[in-house]
Structure formats: structure tokens, C-alpha cells
Write a structure and sequence with these properties.
The complex is a heterodimer of chains A (312) and B (617).
Chain A (H helix, E strand, L loop, with lengths): L1 H28 L4 H4 L6 H11 L5 H14 L12 H36 L4 H15 L2 H13 L17 H35 L2 H8 L4 H12 L1 H18 L2 H6 L5 H11 L2 H29 L5
Helix pairs in contact in A: 1-14, 5-6, 5-8, 5-11, 6-8, 7-8, 9-10, 11-14, 13-14
Chain B lengths: L8 H24 L7 H4 L4 E6 L14 H10 L4 E3 L8 E3 L7 E2 L5 E5 L22 H11 L19 H6 L11 E5 L2 E5 L7 H4 L10 H7 L13 E6 L3 E6 L10 H4 L3 H4 L17 E6 L3 H9 L5 E3 L5 H4 E3 L4 E2 L1 H4 L2 E7 L2 E7 L12 H17 L2 H8 L5 E2 L24 H10 L10 E6 L2 H15 L8 E6 L2 H9 L5 E7 L6 H4 L19 H10 L6 H17 L2 E6 L1 E7 L2 E2 L16 E2 L11
Parallel strand pairs in B: 1-10, 17-18, 17-19
Antiparallel strand pairs in B: 2-3, 4-5, 5-7, 6-7, 8-9, 9-10, 11-21, 12-13, 14-21, 15-19, 15-20, 16-20, 22-23
Helix pairs in contact in B: 13-15, 19-20
Classes of the chains: A mainly alpha (312), B alpha+beta (617).
Chain lengths: 312, 617
């Protein structure tokens, strides 16, 4: 318990630090919405009025204190553009992003682990070279190119015309599959290379350790070696990679996927907030991402202890 | 063989993890599903028009309808007093909610407007009993007042600023809605009177804008800040859903029944006879049950979606022009597309121009008369070095309308004979100008060209640099000044920090007053005169013309003002883009991205088959 409390205390300090830095960046270097909101023939008085309405004329300390209070009370204010409460925007868009991104995220990691294990198992052989070649190819392709090519191949009359190009009219598992398949394939193709390379390196390092040789010498089966010794002992880096990807998926989403497939998730909302300078939305996303990272870090630390008792 | 090779545990691992993955995805999917379970059976027979836009509105409050996207939605969800005739070109005013054109007093100061009887707002919880009430003249008064209330963050006040008696004072005294504005009165429920400070012949045009759309006070009070996403109007459609990717509008079943008249709308059988519009005669708009609008900024995605049949309308991305067109001007589609789609080249109601910051003594006005003359020579040399043909060819597919000056072809006062069309390039003369005025590679000023960062903007900058290189302007003296967002760019040029800035101006109404005001001295930054141009003769002519009704005399004044700006070399201008619009032949419609704009939605109809209008889906 003391360990958890200490982690939470550190986490709180971390959140304050991250939010302060990001707030400074937003206020001093971030987009200023004033000039997007003023009319065509504004005079200095109107500009001052808009700045006042946006709260830009408030002292920095007060603005930051308000921001922290908003984060802790989860009263995140309303979007400057649409007037919609930010909490409702998040409630509306985060589940969409989760539904969109999770299959690709999970499959990308599962396949990455599988291919990484296979490559490690056949290290130096043609299977390993094939997987490595495939990974490097995947890493070299632009996400944008992958999206457009898959759209053309799977969703237009130039190709198979099996899936919709855009949209998110999800009512049941059937329609969900219809709309999520091409984005998921895009996500898998773009992440698989990176994942495979990473997991392969982890598994190769682990399989070269003494305890693996000992297990093999003792006659342990290949399955046991793989499951009990290689995979289990590699769980710390595997878990770290997976866990720290989660906040980005949940909060930031994927701008490209959402934009190109016309999916109303949090990624597109965040991007629009950045370009338009909608600070309430931006502050909420940045702040919640920081909080999510801290929570994930605490959770990951606890899980480390679970999977590896040597960690104190 | 090692013991590793004897089994294939990977399969087992994949199976287990896949199972886990499917379970998690299923759990996550359910809350992510669109909650609006549609009544598929009911809607499958509905007629649906699928429209695409290359941008998205962030607010549906008419007070914030500053973008073309927001305006498209505003004029469909709300009523304006006037609109433009659907088919007449040049554009002509037509009463919308107003019951006829305004009655104007002899001195041009008092406008009396009657509104149509029996028009109701849509049913909404904002009203007692959730029942939409009748639209009253008082609602218009309230809607215009909102533009002047700082709390609204309105963007359209400039249209009426200093124009309506007492309105600016109303704002100064605290924007109290209970306080009357002398120049803005509802004489009764259906009669409105506007009293102007001085004649403003463009007033009726401003009443076609989304900014002037009529909102009920109850809804603004009820929804507060969220009114921007809860539109409550009396337009032909009402909002069903709205998010960052799309908007769905459904027919307003209480919309007034007005028989469509080809003659009233300005139908031209010779140029529009092939569109199937005759079938609309006598029927009441709107003709579609639903309008689904996709906001697709990405050209490739928009095109793929259109080709896949998901969209009925598209503004064709420039990158596709070669694949789509077999002839540029007039545009003609390739055979495969021509079978299913109509095409038009829609001239934009505005223009793109690159202004010199006349407030910058390095390139603009200089207190020393001699240096002032030298600066003018420098600007003229830059303008003469600019190759509009190449700019048009590379960035506008060669179909942009290149012209000289500040009155674009969409304005009725445009005169192609007045100036060189397209602007001629004269490198020899440009070089001579520089030499004659003592400019050389050493003393030429560093040119800072501002733009919002994008690949296209960067390419345009590089092209400008190459043009100027041809008159001996050192490349290292032409520098980019980039900004991450348009807001930042606007902040810089409105604070007079940018030396050379490219501006796209979309005209608010078809009257050259809307573009000549861009160079009127008192409108200098942060006003719309971003060039900070200030010429006493020009200013005097602007004031003289400002109260004049459209006439040959006024046109002559505008053209003289145009010539003054050209002679002063204050701007590198310009080009009006032509947009290639494609739409499904199954629809009877003439789309427009210009002054008619979003008003055309109500007239979109499924192309008729025997027996009258039929659904497309």
C-alpha cells in the first residue's frame, strides 16, 4: 500500500509538471484563436473583446490554476468553437476511437509477438530473413500510402469494392466489421513492422540467456521453453511497450485513420483543436493524456512486480 | 534441428491471443457504436442526397457562419430574409422569408420589409410544449442584435457596423436586449423597419448571408453556449446529427409550401435544359428527405468515396483533373464519367491576391518622397515579373480566371477590357524599372513572404522566388515567413508584421463594393485592408460611391478606383479559381459554390421517372 501511495504522490507531481509545461507551451506558443474568431473587418476593440471572451487577458497563474482545478474536478469547460462541453465531446468520441483502434492495436501486437517469436526461433534462417524483410518493408511504407492503397483496393470499383470508403454508421456487429476492417488492416500493416522488429529483438536477447540453455539441457520441451522461459521472462519490455501505447490510443487516437475514413473520433477532434486553437479541448486532451500516462505508469510498475518478483 | 523446430507453439499463441482480442474488441465496440439506431426500414425508401465538403464547420450558430461550410448549413437550418435566385446568372436577389423586396424610402435610409405569414420554427424543447412558434419580425431584430453582443462571439457584425441607427450605441451601452435600437424595429409581428445612418444599397445583399439568419431567443437562452450545436430554425431542413466527420439534415416537414417556378428562379433552357429541372415546376421544396454531408478535407479520400458511389456531389480535387477531364475549358468529362455525372466549372466568388504591406517602409509608403517613388518602382517591377500564366497552369490547372486589379470577374462591375487580361509579364520593363530607380542586388530589401505552412504554399513561395530571380532579385533576399496555423498567420498580418501576404477573399455579395473596400484607407489592419493601402483619391471615391445605387456612374467610379490600385502597384492580383463540380445524373440539380451556395440544397431532387419525383434510394 505504501508503495502504491508513494507512486500516486509521485504521479501527482508528474501530472502537475507535465500540465505546467504543456500549459506554458499552449499559452505562449500555441495557436491563438482570437484572429480566427474575429470578423472580417475587426477593430482593436473587437479584438480585445474576443480576447476577453476567450479569457486570454487573464493572468497566467489564474489560468493555470483554473486549468488544474478543471482537471481535478473533471469539469473541463466547453469548446470555444462549438460550445459543447468538453466532457461530452470526450464521452462521444473516445468510445468511437477505442472501437476503431483496439482491434488493430491488439492484432498488431499479437501478430508482432507471434512473428517476433517465429523470427527469434528461426534466427538467422530464411524465415527470420523473410520476417525481417517484411518488417522493414512495412516500416518503410508511409501510413498515408497504405490507407489510400487499401481504400482503392478494397473499397472502390477500381478494386474489390467490398467495404465503404468512409463513414461510421455502426449499429450492430455486422456494420461494425464493415466499417472497421479497412482501418484495422491499415493500422496492422503500419504497426506490424515496428512491433515485429521490437519483439524479435527482445525474444532473441532472452533466448540467448543461460537459463534458456539450462532448460534446454534439462530436456524442457520447446513449448515450455517458449511459453515459460522466453515469453514470460520477456514480459517486462513487452508489457512496457503495450501499456505505454494505450494512452495514445485512447486519448489521441489516430488522426490519419479518422480523417481518411471519416470517423468522428477523438483524434480528429484533437487535430481540429490544435489547428483552430480551441484551448479547452486541447487542454483536456493534453491533461488527460498526462494523467493516463501516470496511471499507466503506476499500473505498469505494479504489474512488473507481479510478473517478475525480483523487482522491488 | 533444435528442439525449437519440433513444434509450432506460435499457432497456439495466436489462437489464444486472437480469442482475447475478439473478446476485448467486442466489449469495446458496443459503447462505441453509434447510438442512433436508425429505423432502417423507414429510411430505406427516403430520398437522400449525399453531399461532400472539403472542410467542416465548427459551429452551426449563424452568428459564427463565417466559413463557406458554416454558411452552407446555416442557410438550410435557418431562414434568411433574402436569397439569390437558384438559376439566374448573373446572380439576382429573391425574397426568401421576406414577402417581397424591401420598400425603400426616397432617401434610401428606411427599409421596410414584410415577412411571410405562417412560418414556424421547428418543434424543439426550447419552446413551451416543445412546439415551434411562429417566426416574428422581432426575431430578426434579436438576431441582428446578437451580432453586436460580445458574448455571442459573432463574426458578422462588420456587415452592419456603423450602418444602422443606434446599433453601435446599443452595444456600447452594454448589449441589453430589452433596450430598443431606434434603427431596428419590429413594427408588428410581420413588419420590420431598418433605419440606416447613410444610404447602404448593399443592405439587401447582407440579408442573404447566413449571418443574418433568424434565430429564436428561446433557443439561445435554452441551450446557452451549446446553441452552436443545437440549431433551432425555420429553414428547409433540421439537424439530425453533427460531428467532425459529417452532418445529417432531414426535411423540415413544417417548411412553407411554395411552388417552384422556373421563371422566377431564372431558368435558362439553353444552358440548363439538360439538367432535368423542368420536373420541379409547381412542386414545393425541399425535395429530398435527407441531406447527408460528409466533411472530407483529404482529396484522395473524397475522390475514392465519390468513385465508390458514396457521394452524389464532389468538388473535384485538382490532382484528379487530368483523369477526369478531356477538355479544360469548357470542362468535359471523359466518356466513362460522362455517362453517370454532370460537370460544371464554377467560378469562385472571390479572388486570390498577394498584397504588399504598404505600411512597411521597406516596400510600401516611405516618408521620404524620393524613396516613396523608388518603392513604388520596386513593387511595380515585382508585379511585372510575376508570371500569372505559370501560376495558373501549375496551381489552378490553367482554368483559373487571371485578371488585373481588385474587381474580380464574379462582380457585375468587372470589365475585362479595362486592364490587361491576363496580367502581362514584362521582364525587360521590370529590370529597367529597377535600374532606373537605383535598385541593384546589393540594396534590394529582404522580402519576407508570409504563408501558413503547407506543401502547396511552400511551392508557391518557391515559384515567386524563381519569378523574381529572373529580374535579378537575389534568391537569398526572398525569405519565407511561415506560420503553423491560419490563426497565427492572421494575427501576424493583422498586426502589420508581414511584408508580402497572400489573401483569398470570398465575396459576400455580388457587388464590387465588397472588394474595393479591401483597399479603403480607414479599413486598414486589423480591418480588411490588409495591404494598409491609403490613397486619398481612392478614399474619396469610395466615400462618394458608398451610398450610390448600382448604376453606370457607380461602375465608372469603381473602375477608376481599380485603376488607382493598379497604378500604385499595391497588390499582385489576381486569380479567381474555377472549381470543377461533379454530380450524379440521377439528380435534378444545379450545384453552386458561389453566391447561391447552400441555398441550392432545397432544390436538389431525384431525377423524375414517369409519375413524378422519385426517391434515389
Amino acid at each position: 500500500m505504501r508503495y502504491v501511495l508513494s507512486k500516486i504522490a509521485h504521479g501527482l507531481l508528474l501530472v502537475l509538471g507535465v500540465t505546467l509545461i504543456s500549459f506554458i507551451l499552449m499559452v505562449w506558443f500555441g495557436p491563438d484563436q482570437t484572429y480566427t474568431l474575429v470578423g472580417k473587418n475587426a477593430n482593436p476593440q473587437q479584438i480585445a473583446e474576443v480576447r476577453h471572451e476567450l479569457g486570454y487577458d487573464q493572468p497566467f497563474a489564474k489560468r493555470y490554476a483554473d486549468y488544474v482545478a478543471q482537471l481535478f474536478t473533471l469539469n473541463l469547460g466547453a469548446s470555444n468553437s462549438s460550445g459543447e462541453p468538453v466532457s461530452r465531446i470526450l464521452k462521444r468520441t473516445v468510445p468511437v476511437t477505442l472501437a476503431l483502434m483496439l482491434p488493430g492495436f491488439i492484432l498488431g501486437n499479437v501478430l508482432g509477438i507471434a512473428l517476433g517469436l517465429t523470427a527469434a526461433q528461426h534466427r538467422g534462417r530464411w524465415t527470420d530473413h523473410l520476417i525481417n524483410g517484411f518488417s522493414v518493408t512495412g516500416m518503410s511504407l508511409s501510413f498515408l500510402v497504405i490507407i489510400i492503397v487499401l481504400q482503392v483496393l478494397l473499397s472502390t470499383p477500381y478494386g474489390l469494392n467490398l467495404f465503404p470508403v468512409r463513414g461510421w454508421q455502426v449499429n450492430d456487429p455486422g456494420s461494425y466489421l464493415k466499417y472497421v476492417t479497412v482501418p484495422t488492416l491499415s493500422l496492422i500493416l503500419v504497426t506490424l513492422g515496428y512491433n515485429t522488429r521490437f519483439y524479435r529483438a527482445v525474444f532473441v536477447e532472452e533466448s540467448g540467456k543461460d537459463h534458456i540453455r539450462t532448460a534446454r539441457a534439462c530436456g524442457a520441451s520447446a513449448a515450455a521453453i517458449l511459453w515459460k522461459h522466453v515469453l514470460k521472462n520477456s514480459l517486462v519490455p513487452v508489457m512496457t511497450r503495450i501499456m505505454f501505447s494505450i494512452p495514445l490510443i485512447v486519448i489521441s487516437g489516430s488522426l490519419l485513420i479518422e480523417s481518411y475514413f471519416g470517423i468522428p473520433g477523438i483524434g480528429k477532434v484533437t487535430f481540429d483543436a490544435i489547428t483552430s486553437g480551441d484551448q479547452p479541448v486541447l487542454k483536456a486532451v493534453v491533461g488527460l493524456t498526462a494523467v493516463a500516462f501516470v496511471l499507466i505508469q503506476i499500473l505498469t510498475d505494479l504489474l512488473y512486480r507481479l510478473v517478475d518478483p525480483r523487482i522491488s | 534441428m533444435t528442439c525449437w523446430g519440433k513444434l509450432n507453439p506460435v499457432n497456439a499463441l495466436i489462437k489464444s491471443l486472437l480469442l482475447l482480442c475478439v473478446s476485448i474488441a467486442s466489449m469495446v465496440m458496443l459503447p462505441g457504436c453509434d447510438s442512433q439506431r436508425k429505423n432502417d426500414a423507414a429510411e430505406s425508401s427516403a430520398s437522400v442526397y449525399h453531399h461532400s465538403m472539403d472542410g467542416a464547420p465548427s459551429s452551426l450558430d449563424p452568428a459564427q457562419a463565417s466559413s463557406i461550410y458554416a454558411n452552407f448549413l446555416a442557410v438550410n437550418l435557418y431562414d434568411t430574409l433574402y436569397r439569390y435566385k437558384y438559376l439566374a446568372r448573373p446572380y439576382e436577389l429573391e425574397p426568401n422569408l421576406a414577402d417581397g423586396l424591401p420598400e425603400v424610402s426616397a432617401d434610401g435610409l428606411i427599409y421596410t420589409i414584410h415577412i411571410k405569414p405562417g412560418v414556424h420554427f421547428i418543434d424543439d424543447p426550447a419552446f413551451p410544449g416543445d412546439k415551434g412558434r411562429a417566426v416574428r419580425a422581432e426575431d430578426f431584430v434579436y438576431s441582428i442584435k446578437r451580432q453586436f453582443d460580445p458574448a455571442t462571439r459573432a463574426q458578422g457584425a462588420w456587415l452592419w457596423q456603423g450602418r444602422i441607427v443606434g446599433l453601435d450605441e446599443w452595444k456600447e451601452s452594454g448589449s441589453d436586449y430589452e433596450q430598443e435600437v431606434p434603427g431596428l424595429k419590429a413594427l408588428d409581428d410581420r413588419t420590420l423597419q431598418i433605419q440606416l445612418v447613410s444610404p447602404f444599397p448593399q443592405l439587401t445583399h447582407t440579408l442573404t448571408q447566413g449571418f443574418s439568419a433568424i434565430v429564436p431567443r428561446e433557443a439561445v437562452d435554452h441551450y446557452g453556449q451549446e446553441f452552436a450545436i443545437h440549431p433551432v430554425g425555420s429553414g428547409p431542413y433540421r439537424l439530425q446529427t453533427f460531428n467532425s466527420a459529417s452532418a445529417v439534415l432531414v426535411r423540415n416537414i413544417r417548411f412553407r409550401q411554395e411552388p417552384f417556378s422556373l421563371q422566377t428562379e431564372g431558368f435558362d433552357p439553353a444552358s440548363q435544359g439538360h439538367l432535368g429541372l423542368e420536373q420541379l415546376e409547381g412542386q414545393a421544396a425541399p425535395f429530398m428527405d435527407r441531406v447527408e454531408i460528409e466533411f472530407v478535407a483529404e482529396d484522395a479520400a473524397r475522390w475514392n468515396s465519390f468513385i465508390a458511389g458514396e457521394l452524389d456531389f464532389i468538388k473535384v480535387p485538382v490532382s484528379q483533373f487530368d483523369q477526369v477531364l478531356v477538355n479544360r475549358d469548357p470542362p468535359a468529362l471523359n466518356a466513362a464519367l460522362a455517362e453517370n455525372y454532370h460537370v460544371i466549372a464554377n467560378l469562385e466568388s472571390g479572388f486570390v491576391h498577394t498584397d504588399f504591406n504598404m505600411d512597411d517602409p521597406r516596400i510600401g509608403y516611405h516618408p521620404d518622397p524620393e524613396l516613396n517613388i523608388r518603392n513604388r518602382a520596386l513593387r511595380c517591377a515585382i508585379i511585372e515579373a510575376f508570371d500569372w500564366q505559370k501560376r495558373n497552369e501549375i496551381f489552378y490547372y490553367g482554368i483559373g480566371y487571371v485578371f488585373d486589379g481588385i474587381i474580380p470577374p464574379a462582380a457585375p462591375e468587372f470589365d475585362s477590357q479595362q486592364t490587361r487580361v491576363p496580367p502581362a509579364r514584362d521582364l525587360e520593363h521590370a529590370r529597367n524599372l529597377l535600374t532606373e530607380h537605383g535598385w541593384n542586388a546589393e540594396n534590394l530589401p529582404v522580402l519576407e513572404y508570409g504563408f501558413t505552412f503547407s506543401v502547396t504554399e511552400r511551392q508557391m513561395f518557391e515559384q515567386l522566388r524563381s519569378f523574381l530571380g529572373e529580374i535579378g532579385y537575389p534568391q537569398e533576399k526572398i525569405k519565407p515567413l511561415t506560420f503553423p496555423t491560419y490563426g497565427e498567420y492572421a494575427r501576424a498580418y493583422l498586426n502589420r508584421e508581414v511584408m508580402l501576404m497572400t489573401i483569398g477573399w470570398t465575396m459576400d455579395y455580388p457587388d464590387a463594393e465588397n472588394t474595393v473596400q479591401l483597399f479603403y484607407g480607414p479599413n486598414a489592419s486589423p480591418g480588411s485592408n490588409t495591404a494598409n493601402y491609403n490613397n486619398s483619391r481612392f478614399n474619396q471615391l469610395y466615400r462618394e460611391s458608398s451610398g450610390m445605387q448600382p448604376s453606370a456612374e457607380r461602375t465608372a467610379i469603381y473602375r477608376e478606383m481599380n485603376q488607382i490600385v493598379i497604378d500604385d502597384c499595391a497588390t499582385i492580383s489576381g486569380v479567381s479559381r474555377r472549381l470543377i463540380l461533379l454530380w450524379n445524373r440521377d439528380l435534378a440539380v444545379l450545384p453552386d459554390r458561389s453566391f447561391v451556395g447552400g441555398f441550392f440544397f432545397r432544390f436538389v431532387a431525384p431525377r423524375s421517372h414517369p409519375g413524378g419525383l422519385q426517391a434515389t434510394e
